Every structure is written in C-alpha cells, then in structure tokens.
Amino acid sequence: MICRLRNWFGVRFGHLDIVWLNVFMLSMIHVAALYGFYLKFLNVNIYTRLFAIFYCHVSGCGVTAGRHRYFSHRSFKGNRAVDILLAMMACTTFEQSIYTWCRDHRLHHKHSETDADPYNSNRGFFFCHVGWILVRKHKDVKEKGKSIDMSDLLDNPVVMFEYKYCLQLALIFTVLIPTLVPWYFWNESLAVTFFYGTVYRFVLILHITWSVNSFAHLYGMRNYDKHINPAENTYVSTISMGEGFHNYHHTFPWDYKAAELSNDFRNFTTFFIDSLAYFGMVTERKTASKQLIGKRIERTGDPGYKSSTSIVKNIFGYLLFVVLLA
Asked: Nearest to residue 59, comparing CAs of 320, 269, 279, 319?
C-alpha cells in the first residue's frame, strides 16, 4: 500500500521538504470551497450565479490570455491598455505575482520534465498538480531560474506595479469585488458571496490551471511531438478555455492560439484575444502555418492525426465548465 502511494505521489515521503504553512492554508481554503460548493445548491440568487460565471471567465482569461499567452510567451502584442486590462484580470485569481508566475512558466518550458521544472510531471500526478506548491523548490529550480530572461517584464511598469502590490491587488480583485458586488447590488448574503462566489470560484480556477500541468502532461495524444510528455487533452482544453492542447503548445509555444484549431468552444481564450484584435487593441498574433505544422507532424508526430472539430464535443465540454461553476 505504501509503495502504491509513493508511486502516485511520485516522491519519497522522507525526502520531501514540506512547507506546512502552505499545506495548512491550502487545506483551509479547500474546506471553505467545499462549503461554497454546498451553498451553490441552495437558494442562490440567479444574478449571483450569472455574476460568478462572468467572473470565472474573467479569472480564466486572466490566467490563459494574460499570465500565459501574453506575459509569459509574448505570442501577441498589446498596447498599454491591454497590459492594464490583462494584469487586472490576472489579479482576479491569486496565483502569485505575474512576474513570478511567468518566470516559473518560462522555466517549465525551457527545462520541461526535469528537476529544474517547477511542476515536473515525472515526479507523479499529485506533485505536478498541487504537490509542487506544498514543498520547497528543488535546488535546480532555484539555480536554473536565475538564467531565465525576464528583461521584458522588468521593463514593463504595469507588471512591476503588480509585483510590488500583488497582495493588496489580490485582496481587491480576488476577494473584495466578487464578495461585495452581489451583496451590495442585489442583497445576496455575505456567506454565499464569500464561500460560493469567491472561495469556490477561486479554488475551481486553481484546479483548472493545475490540470494543465497534470492531466495534460500525463494523459492524451502526442500528435505533434511524440518524444515529449505534454499531450492533447480535449476535456482539459474545454474547462481551461483552450489550454489543454498541450502537445501542440509545447511544440509551438509562441502560437497565440496554443492549439492548431481556432476559436471554437474549446478555445475561448483565442476568441477573447481575437475580440481584442478586432477593436485594435491587439496586433501581431503569432501562429504556425499549416505547412510548418504538417512538416513537424511528419518529423516527430503522428502523421495519421486529424484535428477533431466535433460541435457536439465542443458544446458538451463547455457546458461541463459552466455546470462546474453554476
């Protein structure tokens, strides 16, 4: 039994440098989220549910379009208004500062599936999903992290402002706004707005983000590069607004779509970015050509693979995302 647990956790218990404060805090947040999950089955105002769905989309795009595709990978260009908008959206779910998040993610791409990878999937499902937050970083993560070029973010005043005041901004955008807006405007109870609209939403977004590091690195097809761990996971893609096409993303990390497909139900983030481009706020969206993709599949992937665009799968997956929240 112990051996099975060790295999699942992916590490030996005796060699873990556990951060017990993180364990305690994350445990308490999950207990509060479970209470919020219970409250959502009670008499919750329809406006509260709609606001929670809206805010969850804002939080999701803050991670996917903001922290990931824009600030980490620079897969498209935006003006200062875009910097501010995406930084504010990123603050609606506290996942460290934008600078720290991007540094770890760039390190993850440069040293994927090694000890220098902050969420190394070779250390087991639990570790790459959440365990990496509960233990101190491997020494290789600290050493190799110093070599990551972060000059673009260091020169960005919006990112540096968020870095300096990340805790205060997280309190405002992650806690106060989703808690007080339903309470003030339509008299929802503070218990519902806090435990359901704030904590439950926050934990849901956390697990969706973590699922890209775990499920999408361990389960799915490797259509573009069969020599790497990241995989194409349709269901993760849907609930994460398009981030689960991970074999493609690690093969072409600079593609703003993070997938071969365009903006359908499984890739809401691309729709959001394209909408910003429509209004002239976003330019120079980088993407891989069909010829380049085809050549890469022939060289390292599965030539027999064909991208699925089933509308049934798209709608079902998106409804699953909404049901999880509402």
From this structure: 269
